[in-house]
Amino acid sequence: MDFKFTEEQDFFRTQVKDAVDRMIRPRIQEIDEADEFPRDLWKQFSELGYLGLRHPETYGGLDLDVITSMIFYEELARGSCGFAMAVTMQILMGTYFIGRFGTEEIKQRVLVPAIKGEKIGTICFTEDQSGSDLAGTRTTAVKKDGGWVINGRKMWITNGPVCDFCTVLATIDPSKGLEGLSFFLVEKGTKGFSTGQTIHKLGSHGSATGELIFDNVWVPDENLLGEGPGNGVKYTIEILNEVRVMTGLMACAIADEAMKDARKYALERVAFGKPIAKYQLIRAKFANHWAWYEAARLFSYKAAWMIHEGMQCQHECMLAKMFATEMCLSAVDEATRIYGGNSFAMEYPPQRYFRDARFLLFGGGCHEVLQNALGAAYLRKGG
Ligand SMILES: Cc1cc2nc3c(=O)[nH]c(=O)nc-3n(C[C@H](O)[C@H](O)[C@H](O)COP(=O)(O)OP(=O)(O)OC[C@H]3O[C@@H](n4cnc5c(N)ncnc54)[C@H](O)[C@@H]3O)c2cc1C
To answer: What is the domain extent for residue 150?
Structure first.
């Protein structure tokens, strides 16, 4: 066994950490308070080339492996959580299907500028009436004139209000349920495509989230992304492993930052004549968190390693995401307890971690839904 990162991976981590420390961390509070997508930071950060983390060098990407990409997501989440959501959306889900299935012409027109940060992308699954249950997708795509006509509305779309293109999940045959779903590329400026309401979120400020509207949007055949209609769910399952491990490592980073702030506070805050860090009940919070954090991080990187090795690991990725997120929610809660009444003041950081961490519950699958699937899988296990 080998639990070490390679020298290249360690070096890559220090580079990403340096960029996050320099460009993003000094602006965390400003981004949180403004609750607006920071276009200037996006432009500055794009110039570092990380938006092409997983894409081939021929398109301007870095072509890095899964484990190295997870190091990137982990370090990025130590900055603004909302900005990290916008960036990870672009890198992973926003451009994934275009990189994999787009024609050469589509890649030159959409992927190359997306890697440079000149175009912003997103992915659209969720609708007003369906989130976890993709079979409930009501957005339709109907064959017409050498292309497809898309009708529907998508909700809760990260980068939606600022996007230049999106990959939208639509049903080509509602009678087939999950089997009828496919992904289509829709670009800004296409007739009938528009943005709807912007959602004002509890946390993760800095990523723009909202509704996208498709009103008789015609796209040519080559905008159907994937080998033939009806493969949307198969492709979703393939990308979800990476999304889940990414979410797990973002959870680890948020928990770590919250508890590091709490440690500093506990060492300085005096109650009953001594720093609160001297009290056993406060120490227990740090001890418990330390154990759970290490376990969650180890499990998340193990799942990343399994993806890298091409192993069957759908359940491990779900478990890692669920465990790391629950660990994080507990850590941000413990951090607020350590800060006492000050945790309720907007001037102190715990409230931000507390608000930001909630999004982890939903991306990559709600925990009740994961528990359903994992419980059933455990019951089927032999041995
Ligand atoms: C900040 C943020 C950003 C997002 N960005 C995007 C994006 O970019 N693109 C996109 O497509 N979507 C996005 N989403 C939406 C997200 O993917 C959905 O919120 C998620 O899929 C859950 O769907 P839902 O909210 O409709 O909840 P529902 O599916 O309605 O679930 C509600 C509750 O019921 C539970 N539940 C559902 N089914 C079952 C079951 N079978 N058994 C037990 N319990 C069940 C759930 O666990 C949950 O507790 C975003 C959401 C947030 C909060």
So the answer is: 122-229
178-196: per-residue pLDDT in tens? 999 999 999 999 999 999 9
Measured distance CA(40)–CA(21) in Å, rounded: 16
- With a CB cutoff of 8 Å and minimum separation 6, the contacts of 12 are 64, 68, 71, 72
Amino acid sitting at position 173: D
Cα separation, 383 vs 381, whole angstroms: 7
Residue of 246, 250, 366 to test ligand 1 pocket, by largest number of atoms within 8 Å of CB: 366
Q: From the CA of 5, how far away is ligand 1's center (Å)?
A: 34
- The overall pTM is greater than 0.70: yes
Same domain, 25 and 73: yes
| Measured distance CA(359)–CA(81) in Å, rounded | 10
Predicted pLDDT at 363: 87
Cα→Cα distances 118→49, 121, 163, 169, Å: 12, 10, 11, 24
Domain of 341, CATH number, reads 1.20.140.10
pLDDT digits (tens, 9 = 90+) for 341-369: 999 999 999 999 999 999 999 989 999 99
Please name the residue that has the structure tokens 């997501």. 73
